[in-house]
Design goal:
The chain is mainly α and about 475 residues long. Among the domains are: about 135-225 and about 235-320 and about 345-370, no CATH class; about 320-335 and about 375-483, no CATH class. About 60% of the residues lie in helices and about 10% in strands. It has 12 helices and 7 strands. The chain has helices at about 15-30, 30-75, 80-95, 100-160, 165-175, 240-250, 300-315, 340-350, 355-370, 380-405, 420-435, 435-480; strands at about 180-185, 190-200, 205-210, 220, 240, 270-275, 295. A 3-stranded antiparallel beta sheet has the order 1-2-3. A two-stranded antiparallel ribbon has the order 4-5. A two-stranded antiparallel ribbon has the order 6-7. A hairpin with a 2-residue loop joins strand 2 (about 190-200) and strand 3 (about 205-210). Mean pLDDT is about 85; it is low at about 1-10.
């Protein structure tokens, strides 16, 4: 059962896009599918808006093609008089475009600005969500681990006066392979409990149960409250959550000073537990040729049982999609799927990191990384984003080329070829360095735009043809009335 933190280090973001995404997520029960469906809806709606921009662009292109012969004459005639040439070109533009030129420019500018607003607001929202999810997933793992340690400690303290060396404690954890931690909801009060359970055939023996907690801070009863001015409450010494968990860590996992032999402070459960192997997997022998065995320590047994719980929680709650192990990181072979401490600290913010957090992180996340860490991708999303962006532009160019050839129109040489390079590159950079969720949004957005582009251009052409026919019919009617 997944237990979500109620005391997250990063608060859950809100806002227009986040609210809509959560609504889609409630239906799909999957964040990536929610993003995909949202993107399709955005692009379809935006496709209707974009028709106005494409209509304005087509009108300008058609008028430019109509003026091209006169522009060439002006360039030839006033080649040695740049100022006069510019003046004549401006006069030609005013005669042909009139106010429609500025109207078309305004429409395209408004559409472009709205497009950028959608892009960057959604980008900011998904980045905030990534920081929240990374923190929430870590907190979930952390609280599960802390509760496992707390159950063990409460069991030993309440039954054996805190003596971890008690024979019954050692006997219990010697059978660690049959131990597990289970989180359940108490049917009587709805609270979440965590139990240490010993499997015994088909029956599970509950060894000890505690209330599942996300806050282990408490009053330090060993410290006398400090004196305060008359009329005020005495100040009590508070043990923070991290301080309490670290105190348990130091009981279970001995801290060694420099020069001390590792293992000398450990509680041994089984003396000769496993054969010791060298780097090549061969049995290690002593000077007399006898095989060397490794002992089983109490700390090792407790950690194994706790990590079984942590690995299970990680598998159930990890946000993966197809080849991407963690959608909140970039699709890159140089990105780990499990958050490292430096990244976690930057996401949460140093000011929000409680003292001792790194020690707790290292207590279980290092083992989790050894067991579950993978490369987070293979640059597939960045490459696809670039290729689909290029394809989208190619489809647009190809459609216009086929249309011009069919109608016998000489295409106007277009400026801004650099746009066809820089846009795919920028999309690739965003996909390369930011979370995979946003890369999926960009990819799906480009795919839908590519599919809709021929339909949009077809509709625009039909509108232009219809408008042109109306103008021609009007001219014909006016001409006939003169006779």
């Amino acid at each position: 059962m997944a237990i979500l933190s109620t005391l997250l280090s990063v608060s859950e973001p809100s806002g227009f896009w986040i609210t809509i995404i959560k609504a889609f997520e409630a239906v799909t029960n999957n964040y990536v599918l929610a993003i995909i469906f949202l993107t399709v809806v955005i692009r379809v709606i935006w496709g209707l808006v974009d028709i106005f921009s494409k209509y304005s662009q087509q009108k300008m292109n058609a008028m430019q093609a109509k003026m091209q012969p006169e522009l060439e004459k002006i360039k030839a005639k006033y080649a040695n008089q740049p100022q006069v040439m510019q003046q004549k070109q401006n006069e030609l533009y005013r005669r042909n475009y009139g106010r429609s030129y500025y109207g078309s420019c305004i429409i395209m500018l408004v559409v472009m600005i709205l497009n950028l607003v959608i892009f960057f607001t959604l980008f900011a929202g998904l980045n905030s969500m990534a920081a929240y999810k990374i923190s929430a997933n870590y907190d979930n793992l952390k609280y599960n681990y802390e509760n496992c340690l707390n159950v063990v400690n409460e069991y030993v303290v309440n039954n054996y006066d805190g003596d971890y060396n008690n024979p019954e404690v050692k006997d219990l954890f010697s059978d660690y392979e049959n131990l597990e931690f289970i989180v359940e909801i108490n049917p009587e009060n709805g609270e979440q409990n965590i139990s240490l359970v010993r499997k015994n055939g088909e029956q599970n023996e509950v060894v000890y149960t505690c209330k599942y907690s996300t806050d282990f801070s408490r009053v330090d009863e060993s410290v006398t409250p400090s004196e305060t001015p008359e009329g005020e409450q005495p100040q009590e010494a508070i043990i923070t959550s991290n301080e309490y968990i670290i105190s348990i860590l130091n009981k279970i996992f001995p801290v060694y000073e420099e020069g001390e032999e590792i293992g000398s402070k450990e509680i041994v459960l089984i003396e000769n537990y496993q054969p010791e192997l060298d780097a090549e997997g061969n049995q290690v022998v002593d000077a007399e040729g006898n095989p060397v065995y490794k002992p089983l320590y109490l700390s090792q047994a407790i950690q194994n049982v706790a990590m079984n719980r942590i690995e299970n929680v990680y598998d159930v709650n990890k946000d993966s999609f197809l080849w991407i192990e963690n959608i909140w990181f970039a699709d890159s072979p140089f990105q780990d799927s499990i958050v490292d401490y430096g990244t976690l600290k930057s996401q949460i913010g140093s000011a929000n990191i409680e003292e001792g957090e790194e020690q707790i992180y290292n207590a279980f996340m290092v083992d989790l990384k050894d067991a579950k860490n993978r490369v987070n991708g293979y640059y597939i999303l960045p490459i696809l984003c670039v290729l689909v962006a290029v394809l989208s532009m190619y489809v647009n160019t190809l459609y216009n080329k086929i249309k011009n050839k069919k109608k016998g129109i000489t295409p106007v040489k277009q400026n801004g070829k650099w746009v066809q390079i820089i846009i795919p590159v920028l999309l690739g950079i965003f996909a390369l360095f930011y979370n995979s969720v946003f890369a999926i949004y960009m990819l799906v957005s480009q795919l839908v735009a590519t599919i809709l582009t021929p339909l949009q251009l077809f509709i625009v052409d039909k509108i232009i043809d219809k408008t042109k026919k109306k103008e021609e019919d009007k001219v014909t009617v006016d001409y006939s009335r003169k006779f």
